[in-house]
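Notes from hallway chat w/ T.B., transcribed later so I don't forget. T.B. wanted the structure written out for a chain they're using in a teaching module, and asked if we could keep both sequence and structure tokens in one place. Agreed to drop them here.
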Amino acid sequence: MIYVTSPYIAHTSDEELKKEIEQARYEAVARHVSLLAEEGLVCYSPINHWHPVATCYDLTGDSDYWKKQNREMLIRAGKMQIYALPGYQESKGLEFEREVAYKNDIPEKRIEPPYEVTRKHHNLIKKARKS
């Protein structure tokens, strides 16, 4: 199984923009995961699994809660794919996942999103930095 990780949390004081960025990240990863599934690959994405649940039921566990969830699934997966949306290098969650992968000899592979996805996310991050 492939564990697909990418940045999710948007760091901005503008709550509407935060929701917009997180929704855009969710949709971008959902598209990527759907393409993997079409290829017959078995994959798991914490963003695609938890975003709908968290938004429907206002699930806002602290970082330790999410680390526990993600660590267990990553270890079971055995492979990790980093979907390198803009902001992935600053993502604390992704940094944690990379540490888990390293400590457990889980290979990682970075995947560059298509240009149109990257451009959209760069524009959203610019807006967030201004707010």
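Follow-up for T.B.: Residues 15-38 form the longest helix (24 residues). Might be a good example for the class.
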